[in-house]
Design goal:
Length: 150
């Protein structure tokens, strides 16, 4: 690489700033049906701070998570990007608020993941259909529903 570390950090920071400027100030989301995409940006902001050993985006992310949780209350259901972003933010800042968001997302994912017990009964709680134990000779245990529709 011929670009200095300082220049690479500056380029990455400018890209993150530009991307974050596209988020709606009242929702911390991109316009339209793109709820999950903002979660990816959140994780990149936290990763930038981790890589550069700073807390530049900590307050921003606290606000973004608060606003995002108002769009999808409690657990960011349906989008695991927020769980990853929250875990990354917790790793970066050691702020228990981010750990709580990560836990909420994990529990949502767990509730939408097929367990062996579900397969034994053929019924997944919250779903209006039965589940086969295998698909092409591979267990369905551990499979996670992307959305929580019944």
């Amino acid at each position: 690489l011929t670009t200095s570390r300082a220049d690479r950090v500056s380029i990455a920071e400018a890209a993150l700033e530009k991307t974050a400027s596209l988020l709606d100030n009242s929702t911390a989301q991109f316009p339209g049906e793109s709820y999950g995409f903002a979660g990816i940006v959140y994780s990149q902001l936290a990763a930038f701070d981790l890589a550069t050993n700073q807390t530049k985006y900590q307050d921003t992310l606290q606000n973004y998570f608060r606003l995002a949780s108002e769009q999808q209350p409690v657990n960011f259901s349906g989008v695991l990007n927020y769980g990853f972003a929250a875990a990354m933010a917790y790793k970066t800042y050691k702020d228990p608020m981010f750990l709580e968001y990560a836990r909420q997302s994990w529990w949502w994912g767990r509730l939408n993941t097929i367990s062996q017990a579900d397969l034994n009964t053929g019924i997944v709680p919250g779903k209006n259909f039965t589940v086969c134990a295998t698909c092409q000779a591979i267990t369905m245990a551990g499979g996670t529903f992307y959305v929580s529709f019944p």
